[in-house]
């Protein structure tokens, strides 16, 4: 039977519009007079006062609606809103918008039905947003990805979506992907034919077939093996599949919902989760907040869990919980979220029957705060394997490497931005020197030949500030250039090594202003032995092979960075431009790191 909306007849034109609007939304509507009794109506879902909400009759009817759990709306002037009964939940100022009242009322009825169907409790902004999202998503058939920490109630949200959808009269089948082994998961999801494998003594329908017309909920989707991910992708896109060992194509009509407590985007980066499947699942998303982010809901949750546990265990009426005990529960971080709170309340109801729950009834680890540390997720080893079958770098380390490279600042871009800034200042007749960070001072430029300081210094064979490729710092009081342009600075660096930033007509490794190198056929002087950089990380006793990067206990981030750079350089035959693109850093940054770590081609 449809929910009933009661509309009073104080304003008949408005009452007629509300009747048509709520009927169009699928609700049964009854026009209500001030003399009628609300409790005599079956399943009242909402009471709307089109006027007269401050009368004694309205107070009586509002109290009756509150006893049945039906919300109350009232059209009232803001100046007289103080005389309204306390059970009125929402008010609308005159002249009211009938469409707005219907929209707000429909959402509120669906939220109330959602709480009744699933047991979701919460009045904080975060939970109201979640319930509003469920109400919006439920009527459509799009795939939904539900995310949140373990114990936040992801399955309750999935059941709520199903309960408010057009499929609510069909099956809702939850599947815990992590609870099934890789060999059984495909058979459970898609079924198998008789004789498909040892023990398949009969044909069996899979869960997708059983859920046809309804909803299937795939919990812990991040644990699904790659082979099953491929088959699941086809089911989501085409709504068809083959049973294990079967040849007949089976078509289904299923709405899939998925949930995970992991970051699927991280699993995509590490190669443990298919990118196309991630985007196929992530059509609509609901993110559940942890309990520590909605502490104001804890008293409501405690009251709800006490009533539920008392009823299930036949413990009789409870006197609730003391203020001191509630303060302890509000202070706890709840790493297990709502599931942990529910289990704790159930244990206290059993152990403290017929009396108020006191602080001493709470376990010691909760009272002392020892159990308040948030659980730290530990990434599992990856499933990727190299060509030789050896386990490749663990995905969490690979993700660290990629993140580290993405965070590296491209010094060339910074230099270009700084020179652009200098050029802007030069147009106004001022030459900017090293800047505050380098101790430089800007001076007037009297001539027209005004160039960036970096160009002036490079012509003299000196790099200033944080220029790269320098080996020895010498204090200079000032650096002067012939002509009218003068740059003063507190310090500079003397470039005693090769210029790491060659011009368009120079090759890497040439001294600034030197002649091009001779032909390859001409005899050349033997190169001096490279000097070890005192800041470089010493080579490991047993470096890993250059076709893989391995992590060993005791390695630092610099050790790992050195191995990654060396591996990438070897893979592109020491083409530094390609290596810089693969690593996601500037080419000049790569030159500096090669020098820092003492990397050599063929080493």
CATH class of the largest domain: Alpha Beta
Structural Rg: 36 Å
Task: Please give the share of residues in helix.
Answer: 25-40%
Strand order of the largest sheet: 2-1-3-4-5
What is the CA–CA distance across the termini? 80 Å
Shape: globular
Question: What is the CATH architecture assignment of the largest domain?
Answer: 3-Layer(aba) Sandwich
Mean pLDDT level: 76
What would you say this structure looks like, in words?
With 603 residues, the chain is an alpha/beta fold. The protein has five domains: 4-115, Rossmann fold; 120-287, Rossmann fold (3-Layer(aba) Sandwich), CATH 3.40.50.300; 291-368, Helicase, Ruva Protein, domain 3 (Orthogonal Bundle); 397-410 and 531-603, Orthogonal Bundle (Arc Repressor Mutant, subunit A), CATH 1.10.10; 429-494, no CATH class. Helix content is 37%, strand content 12%. It has a five-stranded parallel beta sheet, with helices on both faces. A hairpin with a 5-residue loop joins β19 (479-480) and β20. It is globular, with a radius of gyration of 36 Å.
